[in-house]
Design brief:
Order of helices and strands: EHEHEHEHEHHEHHEEHEHEHEHEHEEHHE
Mean pLDDT: 84
Largest sheet: 5 strands, parallel
Number of helices: 15
Radius of gyration: 27 Å
Helix content: 40-55%
Structural class: alpha/beta
């Protein structure tokens, strides 16, 4: 049942509004703006119905304070006996969801509150859809980083980086449709082995991430790894036959939170180091990060390629951070000067209001540029690209191919996209 906070300094108005709305909603009340702030923090209502003119703290000020204290905008509807249009206009200017005059009419109040909460449900549904990886039903990369990052800062548990070993061979031998089927099944297994309240996401390809709340025992994670390794092979044999002989399996790198820190980026790097340790020791298992985790300088020269090399190399562009792009750009300039390499430097700008459109363009670039090309998002609406071994005339063909791909996507085709290119 959705919850509404009603705020009014007149006891009779609180009683009337509560009686009307309690037929369908859970009601909590406050008799002042200051009390409303405390009640909101404790009860987390879905919306606020507030008198506009109250002593000490009026409805405008209450709305402003609530917006500052919470991360998501809260829908608020003002009620007032003021007949002027000015107060109504000002209420909408500061972001009020609706406005109703006293004395309250039950049918009008119910209908307007219902409209606000129905729209809120739709917005929440759309927001959740944006967070989901369409193939697996797990959190996507962006949502995983955001939500697990928030948990790492406040809760105890284990951060897991999870890889499917030898998955590329499934795609190469049995086709991408079978690979997708394995990814979907593996996602189901992850959901089965995790507890309610744990977060699971897909970072891309065959890489996954999870946060297990309140786990402090390594044996529990080891048991989960054993279960996943057993069940994914069973599923593969069921799908591809008993003679299936690809060494498919699961490797997990783990780090305890907050024992090893609370910053997500730092914890992610530590879990990655633990994952490398599993990969170097036969795969199909799990390892926990510790300060003694091997570093490249401590390994034999023959093992350095395993540590420094890129895992699960995909046939797509190399997408890096803006800072790393600077280093690659400087190396590219040296290659041009010393070896007369043909390298095109491209700046792409997109005029898009929605972040989802920008993410879609990033995915398109990653998938449609060559694996020898390098790209980075350097601001919200700007990407830089290095096209290795590419002559100016070849760039024109690449641009035409990218634009053709863009035109096939409904959202991107509505955005203004500009290319600028020059030879290094």
């Amino acid at each position: 049942m959705q919850k509404i906070l009603i705020v009014d300094d007149e006891p009779m108005m609180l009683k009337i509004a509560s009686k009307i709305l309690s037929k369908k909603y859970q009601i909590v009340t406050a008799s002042s703006g200051a009390e409303a702030v405390e009640v909101f923090a404790a009860e987390k209502p879905d919306m606020v119905l507030s008198d506009l003119l109250m002593p000490e703290m009026d409805g405008y000020e209450l709305h402003s304070i609530l917006q500052e204290k919470i991360s998501e905008p809260v829908p608020i509807m003002f009620m007032t006996a003021d007949e002027s249009d000015e107060s109504e206009s000002h209420g909408f200017e500061i972001g009020a969801a609706d406005y109703i005059r006293k004395p309250l009419k039950a049918d009008i109040l119910m209908r307007r509150v219902g409209n606000i909460l129905d729209n809120l449900d739709k917005l929440n549904g759309l927001k959740q859809a944006v967070d989901i990886d369409t193939m697996t039903g797990l959190l996507n990369k962006v949502a995983s980083q955001r939500k697990i990052g928030e948990i790492c800062a406040t809760e105890r548990g284990v951060l897991l980086m999870i890889d499917l070993d030898s998955f590329k061979l499934v795609n190469d031998i049995h086709g991408h449709a079978m690979g997708d089927r394995i990814l979907v099944k593996f996602s189901e297994l992850l959901n089965a082995v995790m507890s309610d309240g744990d977060l699971i996401g897909r970072m891309g390809g065959d890489e996954f991430i999870a946060f297990c709340r309140n786990i402090t025992d390594e044996k529990i994670i080891a048991a989960k790894a054993d279960y996943l390794n057993e069940k994914i092979v069973d599923a593969a044999k069921k799908y591809m036959g008993a003679n299936f002989n690809i060494p498919l399996g699961v490797s997990i790198g783990a780090v305890f939170v907050p024992a090893e820190g609370t910053d997500f980026v730092d914890l992610y790097k530590k879990a990655d180091k633990a994952l490398y340790k599993v990969k170097q020791n036969g795969k199909h298992g799990c390892a926990f990060y510790s300060e003694n985790t091997d570093t490249p300088a401590q390994k034999d020269f023959a093992d350095l390629d395993k540590i420094l090399g890129e895992r699960n190399v995909q046939n797509e562009a190399y997408f890096v951070s803006a800072e790393n792009f600077k280093l690659i750009y400087r190396l590219a300039v040296r290659l041009v000067k010393s070896f007369k390499q043909d390298i095109q430097f491209v700046r792409l700008t997109i005029d898009a209001e929605k972040d989802s459109d920008i993410d879609e363009l990033k995915d398109l670039l990653t998938a449609n540029l060559r694996m020898t090309d390098c790209a980075a998002q350097v601001s919200r609406n700007q990407f830089l690209i290095l096209l290795m071994g590419t002559k100016p005339q070849e760039w024109n063909f690449i641009k035409m191919r990218l634009m053709a791909k863009i035109k096939t996507l409904k959202n991107l085709s509505q955005c203004k996209i500009d290319f600028e290119a020059t030879a290094l």
